[in-house]
């Protein structure tokens, strides 16, 4: 099967089985989303969603956060991974937003990546989720699942994976495809023990075929 046909069939199945795929992070606006995504690095969405209600109660907007002390931010996020680094990133992000962007989260990927704590993956998440722009964020789940299925071939890093995915996924489906791949990796195609018995892609999956020769 050719690459384009594989993408066509995989996307059709995702569309059928998970038509309303979206982020599991709870947020109300771009400010809340960028905070949640920074917190989610090497931390589960479940944990982040436990932290953010109290965080946003104390820091309801970017201006309040920018004026906060490192100690106050740390206290609110100490139950997540790497709280010291994340507190520093959150404060730096908030200060840059207030000083250089008028308190508004930018839509542009390059501008987003200027913010402390925001790398390419996070910028793509913000662009696609908050602003519905055609961007493909590649985290560990997306990277693993895309390679296992055969959507990517020999990608050595997230950027190579992203470039292969955006070549074949229609722009209007990039944001949803990001969630399809993440959720599939989180609940079915797990890192250590993929649940192939409950996967609707096994007849297309390169990994499954190599394991069942």
List its salient traits.
213 residues; elongated; 2 domains; mainly alpha; Endonuclease III, domain 1; Endonuclease Iii, domain 2
Question: Could you please describe the fold and organization of this structure?
Answer:
It is a single chain. The chain has 213 residues and is mostly helical. The protein folds into two domains: 3-22 and 136-211, Endonuclease Iii, domain 2, CATH 1.10.1670.10; 30-131, Orthogonal Bundle (Endonuclease III, domain 1), CATH 1.10.340. Helices cover 60% and strands 0% of the residues. The protein has twelve helices and no strands. It has helices spanning 3-17, 30-39, 45-58, 62-66, 70-77, 83-100, 109-112, 120-131, 140-149, 158-168, 174-187, 206-211. Helix 2 runs antiparallel to helix 8 (120-131), helix 5 (70-77) packs across helix 6 (83-100) and helix 9 crosses helix 10 (158-168). The model has no long low-confidence stretch (mean pLDDT 96).
| Amount of beta strand | under 5%
Looking at CATH, the homologous superfamily of the largest domain is Hypothetical protein, domain 2
Strand/helix succession? HHHHHHHHHHHH
Mean pLDDT: 96
Count of individual domains = 2
CATH third-level topology of the largest domain: Endonuclease III, domain 1
Secondary-structure-derived class: mainly alpha
CATH class of the largest domain equals Mainly Alpha
Uncertain regions spanning at least 5 consecutive residues:
none
Helix tally?
Answer: 12
* Proportion of residues in helical segments: 55-70%
The 3D shape can be described as elongated
Outline the biggest β-sheet.
Answer: none
Number of strands: 0
């Amino acid at each position: 099967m050719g690459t384009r046909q594989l993408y066509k069939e995989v996307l059709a199945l995702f569309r059928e089985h998970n038509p309303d795929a979206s982020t599991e992070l709870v947020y109300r606006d771009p400010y809340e989303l960028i905070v949640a995504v920074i917190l989610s690095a090497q931390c589960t969405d479940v944990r982040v969603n436990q932290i953010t209600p109290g965080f946003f109660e104390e820091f309801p907007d970017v201006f309040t956060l920018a004026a906060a002390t490192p100690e106050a931010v740390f206290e609110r996020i100490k139950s997540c991974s790497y709280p010291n680094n994340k507190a520093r990133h959150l404060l730096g992000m908030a200060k840059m937003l207030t000083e250089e962007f008028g308190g508004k989260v930018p839509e542009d990927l390059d501008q987003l990546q200027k913010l402390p704590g925001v790398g390419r993956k996070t910028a793509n998440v913000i662009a696609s989720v908050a602003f519905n722009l055609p961007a493909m964020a590649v985290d560990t789940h997306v990277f693993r699942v895309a390679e296992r299925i055969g959507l990517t071939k020999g990608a050595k890093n997230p950027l190579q994976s992203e470039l292969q995915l955006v070549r074949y996924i229609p722009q209007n489906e990039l944001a949803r495809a990001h969630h399809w791949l993440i959720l599939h990796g989180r609940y079915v195609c797990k890192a250590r023990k993929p649940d192939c018995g409950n996967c609707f892609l096994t007849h297309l999956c390169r990994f499954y075929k190599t394991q069942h020769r």
